[in-house]
Design brief:
The complex is a heterodimer of chains A (479) and B (142). Chain A is of the alpha+beta class. Helix content of chain A is 33%, strand content 26%. Chain A has helices spanning 33-36, 41-50, 114-127, 142-151, 153-158, 164-168, 186-192, 217-223, 239-259, 277-312, 390-395, 410-415, 419-428, 438-443, 452-462, and strands at 6-9, 12-15, 27-30, 56-67, 74-81, 86-87, 99-108, 205-214, 229-236, 272-273, 320-326, 328-337, 340-349, 352-353, 372-375, 383-388, 399-400, 432-435, 465-478. In chain A, strands 7, 8, 9, 11, 15, 16, 18 and 19 form an 8-stranded mixed sheet that branches. In chain A, helix 3 (114-127) crosses helix 10 (277-312) and helix 4 (142-151) packs across helix 10. Chain B is α+β, with helices and mostly antiparallel strands and 142 residues long. Chain B has a single domain, classed as Archease, Possible Chaperone, Chain: A, domain 1 (3-Layer(bab) Sandwich). In chain B, strand 4 (79-89) and strand 5 (92-101) form a beta hairpin. In chain B, helix 1 (21-36) runs parallel beside helix 2. The longest helix of chain B has 18 residues, at 59-76. Chain B starts with a strand and ends with a strand. The chains are: A alpha+beta (479), B alpha+beta (142). Chain A binds chain B through residues 40, 67-70, 74, 94-95, 130-135, 187, 190-191, 194, 200-202, 240, 242-244, 246-247, 250-251, 254, 266-268, 406-412, 435-437, 439-440, 443, 479, and chain B through 5-12, 36-38, 68, 72, 75-76, 78, 80, 102, 104, 107-112, 114-120, 139, 141-142.
Chain lengths: 479, 142
Protein backbone atom coordinates (compact mmCIF):
# COMPACT_ATOMS: atom_id res chain seq x y z
CA UNK A 1 0.00 0.00 0.00
CA UNK A 2 2.68 2.45 1.07
CA UNK A 3 4.43 2.19 -2.35
CA UNK A 4 1.63 4.28 -3.88
CA UNK A 5 2.32 7.06 -1.41
CA UNK A 6 5.01 9.76 -1.53
CA UNK A 7 7.51 9.71 1.29
CA UNK A 8 8.21 13.02 3.01
CA UNK A 9 10.22 11.63 5.92
CA UNK A 10 10.57 8.30 7.75
CA UNK A 11 7.37 9.05 9.62
CA UNK A 12 5.38 11.26 7.24
CA UNK A 13 3.82 10.30 3.89
CA UNK A 14 1.61 12.15 1.41
CA UNK A 15 -1.23 11.28 -0.96
CA UNK A 16 -1.28 13.93 -3.66
CA UNK A 17 -4.53 15.55 -4.74
CA UNK A 18 -4.90 13.28 -7.78
CA UNK A 19 -4.81 10.08 -5.70
CA UNK A 20 -8.59 10.05 -5.81
CA UNK A 21 -10.93 12.19 -7.99
CA UNK A 22 -12.24 15.44 -6.44
CA UNK A 23 -9.71 15.73 -3.61
CA UNK A 24 -9.39 19.43 -2.87
CA UNK A 25 -6.37 19.02 -0.56
CA UNK A 26 -3.66 16.35 -0.24
CA UNK A 27 -3.69 13.77 2.57
CA UNK A 28 -0.88 13.15 5.03
CA UNK A 29 -0.22 9.99 7.03
CA UNK A 30 2.10 9.90 10.04
CA UNK A 31 3.31 6.34 10.00
CA UNK A 32 6.46 4.19 10.05
CA UNK A 33 7.28 1.46 7.54
CA UNK A 34 6.68 -1.07 10.30
CA UNK A 35 3.16 0.18 11.03
CA UNK A 36 2.50 0.59 7.30
CA UNK A 37 2.78 -3.19 6.92
CA UNK A 38 -0.68 -3.46 8.44
CA UNK A 39 -2.11 -0.29 6.86
CA UNK A 40 -5.42 -1.23 5.26
CA UNK A 41 -6.25 -0.09 1.75
CA UNK A 42 -9.75 0.76 3.01
CA UNK A 43 -8.34 3.19 5.57
CA UNK A 44 -6.24 4.95 2.91
CA UNK A 45 -9.28 5.25 0.62
CA UNK A 46 -11.28 6.71 3.51
CA UNK A 47 -8.50 9.21 4.21
CA UNK A 48 -8.52 10.32 0.56
CA UNK A 49 -12.35 10.47 0.57
CA UNK A 50 -12.27 12.96 3.45
CA UNK A 51 -10.08 15.23 1.30
CA UNK A 52 -13.04 15.68 -1.10
CA UNK A 53 -15.39 17.15 1.53
CA UNK A 54 -16.41 20.84 1.22
CA UNK A 55 -14.33 23.38 3.12
CA UNK A 56 -11.51 21.02 4.13
CA UNK A 57 -8.33 22.93 4.97
CA UNK A 58 -4.67 22.02 4.45
CA UNK A 59 -4.69 18.20 4.61
CA UNK A 60 -6.80 15.19 5.41
CA UNK A 61 -4.69 13.72 8.21
CA UNK A 62 -4.08 10.24 9.60
CA UNK A 63 -2.26 9.37 12.81
CA UNK A 64 -0.07 6.23 13.05
CA UNK A 65 -2.82 4.19 14.71
CA UNK A 66 -5.08 4.73 11.67
CA UNK A 67 -7.50 1.99 10.70
CA UNK A 68 -10.66 1.42 8.74
CA UNK A 69 -13.68 3.08 10.35
CA UNK A 70 -17.14 4.40 9.52
CA UNK A 71 -16.75 6.99 6.74
CA UNK A 72 -13.69 8.69 8.20
CA UNK A 73 -10.82 6.40 9.20
CA UNK A 74 -10.22 5.92 12.93
CA UNK A 75 -7.09 7.91 13.69
CA UNK A 76 -8.31 10.60 11.28
CA UNK A 77 -8.14 14.37 11.75
CA UNK A 78 -9.68 16.97 9.45
CA UNK A 79 -10.21 20.73 9.82
CA UNK A 80 -13.06 22.45 8.00
CA UNK A 81 -13.55 26.17 7.37
CA UNK A 82 -16.15 27.28 9.94
CA UNK A 83 -17.88 29.47 7.29
CA UNK A 84 -17.87 27.23 4.24
CA UNK A 85 -17.18 23.77 5.64
CA UNK A 86 -19.20 20.80 6.79
CA UNK A 87 -19.68 18.83 9.99
CA UNK A 88 -20.04 15.03 9.82
CA UNK A 89 -21.09 12.52 12.50
CA UNK A 90 -18.87 9.95 10.74
CA UNK A 91 -15.93 12.24 11.52
CA UNK A 92 -16.66 12.00 15.25
CA UNK A 93 -17.85 8.43 15.66
CA UNK A 94 -20.59 6.63 17.57
CA UNK A 95 -18.95 7.09 20.95
CA UNK A 96 -18.93 10.88 21.26
CA UNK A 97 -16.12 12.07 23.57
CA UNK A 98 -14.78 8.63 24.14
CA UNK A 99 -11.73 9.63 26.12
CA UNK A 100 -9.12 8.90 28.72
CA UNK A 101 -8.13 10.26 32.09
CA UNK A 102 -5.13 9.54 34.26
CA UNK A 103 -5.09 9.84 38.04
CA UNK A 104 -1.90 9.70 40.11
CA UNK A 105 -1.67 8.37 43.65
CA UNK A 106 0.96 8.97 46.36
CA UNK A 107 1.52 5.20 46.72
CA UNK A 108 4.80 3.67 45.50
CA UNK A 109 4.38 0.19 43.99
CA UNK A 110 6.22 -2.38 46.09
CA UNK A 111 7.87 -5.49 44.68
CA UNK A 112 5.04 -7.56 46.12
CA UNK A 113 2.07 -5.43 45.11
CA UNK A 114 -0.01 -8.17 43.46
CA UNK A 115 -2.16 -9.32 46.45
CA UNK A 116 -3.27 -5.74 47.09
CA UNK A 117 -3.79 -5.04 43.39
CA UNK A 118 -6.05 -8.11 43.21
CA UNK A 119 -8.11 -6.80 46.11
CA UNK A 120 -8.28 -3.34 44.58
CA UNK A 121 -9.30 -4.61 41.11
CA UNK A 122 -11.88 -7.01 42.54
CA UNK A 123 -13.44 -4.27 44.66
CA UNK A 124 -13.39 -1.78 41.78
CA UNK A 125 -15.00 -4.39 39.53
CA UNK A 126 -17.90 -4.68 41.97
CA UNK A 127 -18.17 -0.92 42.49
CA UNK A 128 -17.92 0.50 38.98
CA UNK A 129 -20.76 -0.90 36.82
CA UNK A 130 -19.03 -2.63 33.94
CA UNK A 131 -20.08 -4.33 30.70
CA UNK A 132 -23.43 -4.95 29.05
CA UNK A 133 -26.68 -4.96 31.02
CA UNK A 134 -25.48 -2.75 33.88
CA UNK A 135 -26.92 0.48 35.19
CA UNK A 136 -25.36 3.14 37.42
CA UNK A 137 -26.18 3.13 41.11
CA UNK A 138 -27.23 6.77 41.07
CA UNK A 139 -30.38 7.05 39.00
CA UNK A 140 -30.64 10.51 37.52
CA UNK A 141 -33.89 12.28 36.79
CA UNK A 142 -34.47 14.10 33.50
CA UNK A 143 -33.63 17.50 34.97
CA UNK A 144 -30.33 16.22 36.38
CA UNK A 145 -29.45 14.64 33.04
CA UNK A 146 -30.24 17.91 31.27
CA UNK A 147 -28.01 19.82 33.70
CA UNK A 148 -25.21 17.28 33.18
CA UNK A 149 -25.46 17.68 29.40
CA UNK A 150 -25.04 21.44 29.88
CA UNK A 151 -22.46 21.48 32.67
CA UNK A 152 -20.35 18.34 32.13
CA UNK A 153 -17.85 17.30 34.80
CA UNK A 154 -18.64 20.53 36.70
CA UNK A 155 -22.08 19.17 37.63
CA UNK A 156 -20.45 16.17 39.27
CA UNK A 157 -17.96 18.30 41.19
CA UNK A 158 -20.75 20.67 42.35
CA UNK A 159 -22.67 17.65 43.61
CA UNK A 160 -19.79 16.23 45.63
CA UNK A 161 -18.28 13.79 43.15
CA UNK A 162 -14.86 15.36 42.80
CA UNK A 163 -12.65 18.33 43.61
CA UNK A 164 -12.62 21.77 41.89
CA UNK A 165 -9.03 21.05 40.82
CA UNK A 166 -10.29 18.13 38.71
CA UNK A 167 -12.00 20.53 36.34
CA UNK A 168 -8.92 22.54 35.40
CA UNK A 169 -7.27 19.22 34.49
CA UNK A 170 -9.87 18.39 31.86
CA UNK A 171 -9.84 19.41 28.22
CA UNK A 172 -12.28 22.39 28.03
CA UNK A 173 -12.54 22.23 31.83
CA UNK A 174 -14.80 19.23 31.34
CA UNK A 175 -17.53 21.26 29.65
CA UNK A 176 -17.83 22.10 25.99
CA UNK A 177 -19.69 25.26 25.00
CA UNK A 178 -22.61 25.13 22.61
CA UNK A 179 -24.48 22.13 24.01
CA UNK A 180 -28.13 22.19 22.97
CA UNK A 181 -30.19 19.48 24.64
CA UNK A 182 -33.25 20.34 22.51
CA UNK A 183 -31.61 18.20 19.82
CA UNK A 184 -31.14 15.17 22.07
CA UNK A 185 -34.00 12.71 21.44
CA UNK A 186 -36.22 11.10 24.08
CA UNK A 187 -34.62 7.76 23.23
CA UNK A 188 -31.13 9.14 23.81
CA UNK A 189 -32.29 10.55 27.16
CA UNK A 190 -33.77 7.17 28.14
CA UNK A 191 -30.39 5.53 27.38
CA UNK A 192 -28.44 8.26 29.15
CA UNK A 193 -30.38 8.33 32.43
CA UNK A 194 -29.24 4.96 33.84
CA UNK A 195 -25.68 4.96 32.48
CA UNK A 196 -23.87 7.97 33.93
CA UNK A 197 -21.10 6.37 35.98
CA UNK A 198 -20.73 3.15 34.00
CA UNK A 199 -17.65 1.89 32.15
CA UNK A 200 -19.14 0.07 29.15
CA UNK A 201 -17.36 -2.68 27.26
CA UNK A 202 -15.23 -3.46 24.22
CA UNK A 203 -12.00 -1.48 24.30
CA UNK A 204 -13.09 0.53 27.35
CA UNK A 205 -11.20 -0.20 30.54
CA UNK A 206 -10.16 0.81 34.01
CA UNK A 207 -6.52 0.08 34.72
CA UNK A 208 -4.17 0.30 37.69
CA UNK A 209 -0.68 1.09 36.43
CA UNK A 210 2.79 1.83 37.66
CA UNK A 211 4.89 4.72 36.35
CA UNK A 212 7.65 2.62 34.80
CA UNK A 213 9.80 5.24 33.12
CA UNK A 214 10.12 9.01 33.01
CA UNK A 215 11.50 10.39 29.75
CA UNK A 216 11.03 14.10 30.43
CA UNK A 217 11.74 14.95 34.10
CA UNK A 218 10.68 18.57 33.89
CA UNK A 219 7.32 17.92 32.22
CA UNK A 220 6.64 14.89 34.44
CA UNK A 221 7.18 17.05 37.54
CA UNK A 222 4.79 19.70 36.20
CA UNK A 223 2.20 17.01 35.39
CA UNK A 224 2.61 15.54 38.89
CA UNK A 225 3.90 12.13 37.80
CA UNK A 226 6.59 10.31 39.81
CA UNK A 227 8.48 7.12 39.04
CA UNK A 228 7.08 3.89 40.58
CA UNK A 229 3.86 5.52 41.79
CA UNK A 230 0.57 3.76 41.26
CA UNK A 231 -1.73 5.46 38.76
CA UNK A 232 -5.23 4.81 37.51
CA UNK A 233 -6.35 5.16 33.92
CA UNK A 234 -10.00 5.33 32.87
CA UNK A 235 -11.07 4.89 29.24
CA UNK A 236 -14.75 5.32 28.35
CA UNK A 237 -17.20 7.71 26.71
CA UNK A 238 -20.78 8.94 26.48
CA UNK A 239 -22.35 5.49 26.63
CA UNK A 240 -25.80 4.85 25.11
CA UNK A 241 -26.57 8.59 25.07
CA UNK A 242 -23.81 9.32 22.56
CA UNK A 243 -24.51 6.17 20.56
CA UNK A 244 -28.18 7.11 20.19
CA UNK A 245 -27.42 10.75 19.28
CA UNK A 246 -25.08 9.53 16.56
CA UNK A 247 -27.69 7.08 15.24
CA UNK A 248 -30.46 9.74 15.30
CA UNK A 249 -28.44 12.51 13.68
CA UNK A 250 -26.87 10.28 11.01
CA UNK A 251 -30.37 9.82 9.64
CA UNK A 252 -31.03 13.59 9.61
CA UNK A 253 -27.62 14.40 8.21
CA UNK A 254 -27.99 11.83 5.42
CA UNK A 255 -31.13 13.66 4.30
CA UNK A 256 -29.31 17.00 4.65
CA UNK A 257 -26.45 15.82 2.42
CA UNK A 258 -28.97 15.33 -0.38
CA UNK A 259 -30.87 18.53 0.44
CA UNK A 260 -27.75 20.71 0.16
CA UNK A 261 -26.49 18.83 -2.92
CA UNK A 262 -23.20 17.75 -1.33
CA UNK A 263 -21.39 15.16 -3.44
CA UNK A 264 -19.80 12.49 -1.28
CA UNK A 265 -17.85 9.46 -2.51
CA UNK A 266 -19.23 7.22 0.28
CA UNK A 267 -22.63 7.43 2.02
CA UNK A 268 -20.92 7.02 5.38
CA UNK A 269 -19.47 10.53 4.89
CA UNK A 270 -22.94 12.07 5.26
CA UNK A 271 -22.45 15.68 6.31
CA UNK A 272 -24.17 19.05 6.48
CA UNK A 273 -22.88 22.62 6.22
CA UNK A 274 -21.72 23.76 9.67
CA UNK A 275 -24.02 26.78 9.44
CA UNK A 276 -27.12 24.80 8.34
CA UNK A 277 -29.93 23.96 10.79
CA UNK A 278 -29.02 20.26 10.57
CA UNK A 279 -25.32 20.94 11.16
CA UNK A 280 -26.06 23.18 14.16
CA UNK A 281 -28.48 20.60 15.59
CA UNK A 282 -25.86 17.85 15.39
CA UNK A 283 -23.19 20.05 16.93
CA UNK A 284 -25.48 21.02 19.84
CA UNK A 285 -26.41 17.40 20.55
CA UNK A 286 -22.81 16.23 20.15
CA UNK A 287 -21.56 18.84 22.64
CA UNK A 288 -24.27 17.69 25.10
CA UNK A 289 -22.94 14.13 24.80
CA UNK A 290 -19.35 15.31 25.19
CA UNK A 291 -20.34 16.95 28.47
CA UNK A 292 -22.09 13.79 29.63
CA UNK A 293 -18.93 11.77 28.87
CA UNK A 294 -16.83 14.07 31.08
CA UNK A 295 -19.41 13.70 33.85
CA UNK A 296 -19.32 9.93 33.37
CA UNK A 297 -15.53 9.76 33.76
CA UNK A 298 -15.80 12.13 36.75
CA UNK A 299 -18.34 9.85 38.47
CA UNK A 300 -16.11 6.82 37.86
CA UNK A 301 -13.15 8.78 39.25
CA UNK A 302 -15.16 9.43 42.41
CA UNK A 303 -15.86 5.70 42.82
CA UNK A 304 -12.20 4.86 42.15
CA UNK A 305 -11.04 7.36 44.79
CA UNK A 306 -13.37 5.93 47.43
CA UNK A 307 -12.29 2.34 46.81
CA UNK A 308 -8.58 3.19 46.54
CA UNK A 309 -8.62 5.23 49.75
CA UNK A 310 -10.33 2.38 51.60
CA UNK A 311 -7.69 -0.14 50.53
CA UNK A 312 -4.57 2.02 50.61
CA UNK A 313 -5.55 4.44 53.38
CA UNK A 314 -4.90 7.55 51.28
CA UNK A 315 -6.90 10.79 51.32
CA UNK A 316 -9.52 11.54 48.64
CA UNK A 317 -7.68 14.56 47.22
CA UNK A 318 -4.31 12.80 47.23
CA UNK A 319 -5.57 11.07 44.10
CA UNK A 320 -4.93 13.82 41.60
CA UNK A 321 -6.10 14.10 38.05
CA UNK A 322 -3.20 14.49 35.60
CA UNK A 323 -5.53 15.23 32.69
CA UNK A 324 -8.63 14.14 30.79
CA UNK A 325 -8.66 14.11 26.98
CA UNK A 326 -11.30 13.38 24.31
CA UNK A 327 -10.69 11.01 21.43
CA UNK A 328 -13.88 11.47 19.41
CA UNK A 329 -15.10 15.02 18.93
CA UNK A 330 -15.61 17.98 16.59
CA UNK A 331 -14.60 21.40 17.95
CA UNK A 332 -14.13 25.01 16.91
CA UNK A 333 -10.51 26.08 17.30
CA UNK A 334 -8.42 28.90 15.85
CA UNK A 335 -5.44 28.27 13.56
CA UNK A 336 -3.25 30.31 11.32
CA UNK A 337 -3.86 29.22 7.74
CA UNK A 338 -1.92 30.83 4.90
CA UNK A 339 -1.03 33.74 7.16
CA UNK A 340 -4.61 34.36 8.33
CA UNK A 341 -6.31 33.46 11.64
CA UNK A 342 -9.24 31.21 10.92
CA UNK A 343 -11.90 29.44 12.95
CA UNK A 344 -11.70 25.77 12.07
CA UNK A 345 -14.11 22.96 12.88
CA UNK A 346 -11.59 20.25 13.78
CA UNK A 347 -12.87 16.67 13.62
CA UNK A 348 -10.82 14.25 15.69
CA UNK A 349 -11.93 10.67 15.33
CA UNK A 350 -9.67 8.43 17.31
CA UNK A 351 -7.19 11.26 17.76
CA UNK A 352 -6.13 13.36 20.74
CA UNK A 353 -5.76 17.10 21.09
CA UNK A 354 -2.07 17.93 21.49
CA UNK A 355 -1.91 21.66 22.24
CA UNK A 356 1.59 23.07 22.48
CA UNK A 357 2.97 25.59 24.98
CA UNK A 358 1.10 28.94 25.16
CA UNK A 359 -2.03 27.51 23.56
CA UNK A 360 -5.48 28.48 24.78
CA UNK A 361 -7.26 26.23 27.29
CA UNK A 362 -4.10 25.15 29.15
CA UNK A 363 -4.14 25.35 32.96
CA UNK A 364 -1.97 28.33 34.00
CA UNK A 365 0.75 26.14 35.55
CA UNK A 366 1.12 24.16 32.31
CA UNK A 367 1.28 27.08 29.85
CA UNK A 368 5.04 26.73 29.43
CA UNK A 369 4.99 22.92 29.07
CA UNK A 370 2.06 22.14 26.81
CA UNK A 371 -1.00 19.96 27.25
CA UNK A 372 -0.73 16.50 28.80
CA UNK A 373 -1.61 13.89 26.14
CA UNK A 374 -2.71 10.41 27.25
CA UNK A 375 -2.21 7.36 25.04
CA UNK A 376 -3.68 4.15 26.43
CA UNK A 377 -2.13 0.85 25.42
CA UNK A 378 -4.14 -2.27 24.68
CA UNK A 379 -4.81 -4.80 27.46
CA UNK A 380 -1.48 -5.80 28.96
CA UNK A 381 0.66 -3.25 27.11
CA UNK A 382 2.22 0.08 28.09
CA UNK A 383 0.35 3.39 28.16
CA UNK A 384 2.05 6.74 27.65
CA UNK A 385 1.90 10.34 28.84
CA UNK A 386 3.11 12.83 26.26
CA UNK A 387 3.06 16.61 25.92
CA UNK A 388 1.56 18.73 23.13
CA UNK A 389 3.82 20.72 20.83
CA UNK A 390 3.99 23.79 18.59
CA UNK A 391 4.63 21.40 15.66
CA UNK A 392 1.20 19.84 16.21
CA UNK A 393 -0.36 23.33 16.07
CA UNK A 394 1.32 23.89 12.68
CA UNK A 395 0.96 20.47 11.12
CA UNK A 396 -2.00 18.54 12.52
CA UNK A 397 -4.53 21.07 13.89
CA UNK A 398 -3.09 20.45 17.34
CA UNK A 399 -3.62 16.68 17.19
CA UNK A 400 -1.82 13.39 17.74
CA UNK A 401 -2.58 9.65 17.99
CA UNK A 402 -5.08 8.14 20.46
CA UNK A 403 -3.96 4.61 21.17
CA UNK A 404 -2.79 1.51 19.52
CA UNK A 405 -5.54 0.67 16.99
CA UNK A 406 -6.66 -2.81 16.05
CA UNK A 407 -4.66 -4.84 13.52
CA UNK A 408 -6.94 -7.80 13.26
CA UNK A 409 -10.56 -8.64 13.79
CA UNK A 410 -12.24 -10.05 16.84
CA UNK A 411 -13.04 -13.19 14.84
CA UNK A 412 -9.34 -13.73 14.22
CA UNK A 413 -8.48 -12.85 17.82
CA UNK A 414 -10.83 -15.58 19.05
CA UNK A 415 -9.07 -18.17 16.85
CA UNK A 416 -5.88 -17.56 18.84
CA UNK A 417 -5.49 -18.04 22.59
CA UNK A 418 -8.63 -18.49 24.70
CA UNK A 419 -9.64 -15.81 27.17
CA UNK A 420 -8.59 -18.04 30.07
CA UNK A 421 -5.14 -18.64 28.53
CA UNK A 422 -4.60 -14.92 27.96
CA UNK A 423 -5.66 -14.17 31.53
CA UNK A 424 -3.19 -16.75 32.93
CA UNK A 425 -0.42 -15.57 30.62
CA UNK A 426 -0.89 -11.96 31.73
CA UNK A 427 -0.98 -12.95 35.39
CA UNK A 428 2.39 -14.67 34.99
CA UNK A 429 3.67 -11.33 33.72
CA UNK A 430 2.28 -9.55 36.79
CA UNK A 431 -0.96 -8.22 35.29
CA UNK A 432 -4.24 -9.17 36.94
CA UNK A 433 -7.25 -9.05 34.59
CA UNK A 434 -10.88 -9.09 35.61
CA UNK A 435 -13.56 -9.07 32.90
CA UNK A 436 -17.26 -9.86 32.56
CA UNK A 437 -16.40 -12.93 30.46
CA UNK A 438 -13.49 -14.79 28.90
CA UNK A 439 -15.00 -13.98 25.50
CA UNK A 440 -14.26 -10.29 26.10
CA UNK A 441 -10.65 -11.08 27.07
CA UNK A 442 -10.14 -13.22 23.95
CA UNK A 443 -11.48 -10.49 21.67
CA UNK A 444 -9.28 -7.87 23.26
CA UNK A 445 -6.13 -10.02 23.01
CA UNK A 446 -3.04 -7.76 23.15
CA UNK A 447 -1.84 -9.16 19.79
CA UNK A 448 -4.99 -7.88 18.06
CA UNK A 449 -3.64 -4.33 18.45
CA UNK A 450 -0.78 -2.36 16.96
CA UNK A 451 2.12 -1.80 19.32
CA UNK A 452 1.44 1.30 21.42
CA UNK A 453 5.22 1.82 21.74
CA UNK A 454 5.69 2.03 17.97
CA UNK A 455 2.67 4.34 17.56
CA UNK A 456 4.10 6.65 20.23
CA UNK A 457 7.59 6.47 18.73
CA UNK A 458 6.18 7.78 15.43
CA UNK A 459 4.33 10.77 16.91
CA UNK A 460 7.40 11.60 19.01
CA UNK A 461 9.67 11.41 15.96
CA UNK A 462 7.23 13.53 13.93
CA UNK A 463 7.25 16.02 16.81
CA UNK A 464 3.44 16.25 17.07
CA UNK A 465 3.69 15.21 20.74
CA UNK A 466 6.69 14.28 22.87
CA UNK A 467 7.19 11.43 25.34
CA UNK A 468 7.00 12.28 29.04
CA UNK A 469 6.39 8.97 30.82
CA UNK A 470 5.53 5.31 30.29
CA UNK A 471 3.15 3.28 32.45
CA UNK A 472 2.96 -0.49 32.80
CA UNK A 473 -0.34 -2.15 33.77
CA UNK A 474 -0.69 -4.08 37.05
CA UNK A 475 -4.44 -4.65 37.07
CA UNK A 476 -7.11 -4.32 34.36
CA UNK A 477 -10.90 -4.24 34.37
CA UNK A 478 -12.57 -5.00 31.06
CA UNK A 479 -16.31 -4.63 30.43
CA UNK B 1 -31.79 -20.05 9.01
CA UNK B 2 -28.30 -18.79 9.76
CA UNK B 3 -25.86 -16.01 10.51
CA UNK B 4 -22.12 -16.02 10.07
CA UNK B 5 -19.40 -13.73 11.36
CA UNK B 6 -17.05 -12.31 8.70
CA UNK B 7 -13.69 -10.61 9.15
CA UNK B 8 -13.73 -6.90 10.11
CA UNK B 9 -10.85 -5.13 11.84
CA UNK B 10 -12.62 -2.68 14.09
CA UNK B 11 -16.23 -3.81 14.26
CA UNK B 12 -18.44 -6.86 13.83
CA UNK B 13 -19.56 -7.85 10.35
CA UNK B 14 -22.24 -10.52 9.99
CA UNK B 15 -23.83 -12.19 6.96
CA UNK B 16 -27.40 -13.12 7.88
CA UNK B 17 -29.81 -15.24 5.89
CA UNK B 18 -33.45 -16.23 5.98
CA UNK B 19 -36.07 -17.96 3.85
CA UNK B 20 -38.29 -14.90 4.17
CA UNK B 21 -37.65 -11.25 5.11
CA UNK B 22 -39.10 -12.06 8.54
CA UNK B 23 -36.61 -14.87 9.06
CA UNK B 24 -33.76 -12.67 7.86
CA UNK B 25 -34.81 -10.05 10.43
CA UNK B 26 -35.00 -12.53 13.32
CA UNK B 27 -31.62 -14.05 12.36
CA UNK B 28 -30.08 -10.57 12.26
CA UNK B 29 -31.42 -10.00 15.77
CA UNK B 30 -29.90 -13.30 16.91
CA UNK B 31 -26.56 -12.25 15.39
CA UNK B 32 -26.69 -8.97 17.31
CA UNK B 33 -27.42 -10.64 20.63
CA UNK B 34 -24.64 -13.18 20.09
CA UNK B 35 -22.24 -10.21 20.26
CA UNK B 36 -23.77 -8.74 23.39
CA UNK B 37 -23.94 -11.84 25.58
CA UNK B 38 -21.98 -15.03 25.97
CA UNK B 39 -25.22 -16.96 26.26
CA UNK B 40 -28.36 -15.29 24.92
CA UNK B 41 -30.77 -18.03 25.79
CA UNK B 42 -33.52 -16.33 27.75
CA UNK B 43 -36.01 -19.05 28.51
CA UNK B 44 -36.14 -18.83 32.28
CA UNK B 45 -39.12 -18.13 34.52
CA UNK B 46 -38.45 -14.41 34.47
CA UNK B 47 -39.46 -14.07 30.81
CA UNK B 48 -41.15 -10.84 29.75
CA UNK B 49 -42.83 -10.00 26.47
CA UNK B 50 -42.74 -6.65 24.68
CA UNK B 51 -44.31 -5.31 21.53
CA UNK B 52 -42.33 -3.13 19.18
CA UNK B 53 -43.35 -1.30 16.03
CA UNK B 54 -41.02 0.27 13.49
CA UNK B 55 -41.70 2.09 10.23
CA UNK B 56 -39.16 2.99 7.61
CA UNK B 57 -38.78 4.11 4.00
CA UNK B 58 -37.31 0.88 2.62
CA UNK B 59 -36.88 -2.74 3.64
CA UNK B 60 -33.13 -2.36 4.27
CA UNK B 61 -33.65 0.75 6.40
CA UNK B 62 -36.41 -1.12 8.20
CA UNK B 63 -33.85 -3.79 9.11
CA UNK B 64 -31.48 -1.16 10.53
CA UNK B 65 -34.26 0.62 12.43
CA UNK B 66 -35.60 -2.69 13.77
CA UNK B 67 -32.17 -3.67 15.13
CA UNK B 68 -31.68 -0.17 16.59
CA UNK B 69 -35.04 -0.49 18.35
CA UNK B 70 -34.12 -3.90 19.81
CA UNK B 71 -30.81 -2.49 20.97
CA UNK B 72 -32.66 0.35 22.67
CA UNK B 73 -35.10 -2.01 24.45
CA UNK B 74 -32.29 -4.35 25.57
CA UNK B 75 -30.18 -1.50 26.91
CA UNK B 76 -32.82 0.58 28.68
CA UNK B 77 -34.57 -2.41 30.28
CA UNK B 78 -31.36 -4.48 30.78
CA UNK B 79 -32.94 -7.39 28.93
CA UNK B 80 -31.46 -10.38 27.17
CA UNK B 81 -33.79 -10.91 24.23
CA UNK B 82 -34.10 -14.35 22.71
CA UNK B 83 -37.32 -14.68 20.80
CA UNK B 84 -38.18 -12.11 18.18
CA UNK B 85 -41.10 -12.80 15.89
CA UNK B 86 -41.44 -9.98 13.37
CA UNK B 87 -44.36 -9.41 11.01
CA UNK B 88 -43.61 -7.16 8.06
CA UNK B 89 -46.27 -5.37 6.06
CA UNK B 90 -44.77 -3.14 3.39
CA UNK B 91 -42.22 -1.02 5.20
CA UNK B 92 -43.80 -1.45 8.63
CA UNK B 93 -42.77 -4.04 11.15
CA UNK B 94 -44.51 -5.28 14.27
CA UNK B 95 -42.81 -7.75 16.52
CA UNK B 96 -43.37 -9.61 19.72
CA UNK B 97 -40.13 -9.78 21.63
CA UNK B 98 -39.43 -12.05 24.58
CA UNK B 99 -36.52 -11.87 26.96
CA UNK B 100 -35.41 -11.86 30.57
CA UNK B 101 -33.44 -9.52 32.82
CA UNK B 102 -29.67 -9.75 32.37
CA UNK B 103 -27.84 -11.78 35.01
CA UNK B 104 -24.07 -11.80 34.62
CA UNK B 105 -23.61 -15.30 36.03
CA UNK B 106 -26.19 -16.75 33.65
CA UNK B 107 -25.72 -14.78 30.43
CA UNK B 108 -22.06 -13.76 30.65
CA UNK B 109 -20.79 -10.43 29.40
CA UNK B 110 -20.24 -9.73 25.76
CA UNK B 111 -19.56 -6.54 23.86
CA UNK B 112 -21.91 -3.59 23.86
CA UNK B 113 -23.06 -2.44 20.44
CA UNK B 114 -22.90 1.30 19.85
CA UNK B 115 -24.96 1.33 16.70
CA UNK B 116 -25.89 -0.41 13.48
CA UNK B 117 -24.01 0.89 10.48
CA UNK B 118 -26.47 2.83 8.35
CA UNK B 119 -24.85 2.19 5.04
CA UNK B 120 -23.95 -0.85 3.06
CA UNK B 121 -26.94 -2.85 4.30
CA UNK B 122 -28.67 -4.21 1.22
CA UNK B 123 -31.12 -7.05 1.29
CA UNK B 124 -30.37 -9.45 -1.54
CA UNK B 125 -32.61 -12.15 -2.92
CA UNK B 126 -30.50 -15.16 -3.80
CA UNK B 127 -31.76 -18.17 -5.75
CA UNK B 128 -30.16 -21.45 -4.86
CA UNK B 129 -31.07 -25.05 -5.70
CA UNK B 130 -33.31 -25.37 -2.68
CA UNK B 131 -35.12 -22.06 -3.16
CA UNK B 132 -34.86 -18.34 -2.49
CA UNK B 133 -32.91 -16.76 0.38
CA UNK B 134 -32.92 -13.24 1.72
CA UNK B 135 -29.45 -12.15 2.72
CA UNK B 136 -27.86 -9.04 4.25
CA UNK B 137 -24.40 -8.09 5.50
CA UNK B 138 -24.58 -5.91 8.59
CA UNK B 139 -21.85 -4.01 10.42
CA UNK B 140 -22.38 -3.62 14.16
CA UNK B 141 -20.30 -0.73 15.49
CA UNK B 142 -18.75 -1.67 18.84
Amino acid sequence: MIDKINKISDVEWELKEGFMPNMSVPARIYISELLAQTLEEGAVTQLANVATLPGILKYSLAMPDVHWGYGFPIGGVAGFDADTGIISPGGVGFDINCGVRLITTPVKASSNEMPKIKRLITELFHTVPTGVGTHAEKKLNEKELDDIMNEGAGWMVNNGYGTPRDLIRCEDNGCMKGADTAFVSKKAIARGIPQCGTLGSGNHFLEVQKTAEIMDEEAAAKFGVEKDNLCIMIHCGSRGLGHQVCTDHLKEIEAATKKYGINIPDNQLACAPIKSDEGKAYFGAMAACANYAWANRQMITHMVREVFCKIYGTEYDELRLVYDVCHNVAKFEEYEIDGRRKTVCVHRKGATRSFGPNSPDLPSDLVSVGQPVLIPGSMGTASYLLKGTAAAMEKTFGSTCHGSGRVFSRTKAKEGMSGQEIKEDLEKRGIFVKATSNKVIAEEAPDAYKSSSEVVRVVHEAGISLKVARFEPLGVIKG
Amino acid sequence: MSFEELDHTADYLFRCRGRSPEELFSESARAMFSIMFENNDATGDACVTKEIEVESDSLSNLLIDFLSELLFVAEVDCLVLSGVKPKITGNTLKAEVTGEPFVLEKHGGGTEIKGISRSGVEIEEISEDDGIYYQAEIIFDV
